[in-house]
Amino acid sequence: MTDITVSSIKEVSLRRATVDDAEAIAAVRVESWQATYRGMIPDNYLDEMRVEDSMLQWRQILQAMAQAEDRICVYVAESEGHIIGFASGMMLPEPKLGMQAELTAVYLRPAWQRSGIGRRMVQKVARTLQAQGADSLLVWVISGNSIARNFYEELGGALLIEQAFSWDGMDLMEVGYGWRDLSVLMASVNAMRTSASLH
């Protein structure tokens, strides 16, 4: 894994995604899935994932975002002109598990994981949704993804539920984490950033 210093993290900028970012976002998603979900999702499904297929879906999401007045938000993390990660969220039409908004995706290229960028992206999405009136946030994780589960637990997420779900014909298990008070999430991100800067 690439060693990333705090100074280099500061060189990563976050900005709102545009439709032109659909291909780069899709590439990050496919690379992240293929690296992360081995052993959780069948290899043949991961090996057959194509950037072109995911790009069409993300183009639709980004077009919808442009008309959603921050009820849908997607941010990309960029370094030296290259997109290295993205995060997205949305206000829920109706509360789920008592949560008003959902963090729908957080993905980073493997070499950039565990560098603090994921926390920054989560905070950016949460702030946008908070400005839309959300005071709570839900996120879903595949049960076996211990790295993601630890990430959300470190940010103060409470385990709400574990349940079966179906994805593209695959029967999987997922867990839902939530923050009933977004100020807890913000404080956790800030505390972790302060701790990192002291090392």
From TrEMBL:
<keyword id="KW-0808">Transferase</keyword>
<dbReference type="Pfam" id="PF00583">
    <property type="entry name" value="Acetyltransf_1"/>
</dbReference>
<dbReference type="GO" id="GO:0016747">
    <property type="term" value="F:acyltransferase activity, transferring groups other than amino-acyl groups"/>
</dbReference>
<keyword id="KW-0012">Acyltransferase</keyword>
<dbReference type="InterPro" id="IPR016181">
    <property type="entry name" value="Acyl_CoA_acyltransferase"/>
</dbReference>
<protein>
    <submittedName>
        <fullName>L-amino acid N-acyltransferase YncA</fullName>
    </submittedName>
</protein>
<dbReference type="InterPro" id="IPR000182">
    <property type="entry name" value="GNAT_dom"/>
</dbReference>
<dbReference type="InterPro" id="IPR050832">
    <property type="entry name" value="Bact_Acetyltransf"/>
</dbReference>
<feature type="domain" description="N-acetyltransferase">
    <location>
        <begin position="12"/>
        <end position="191"/>
    </location>
</feature>
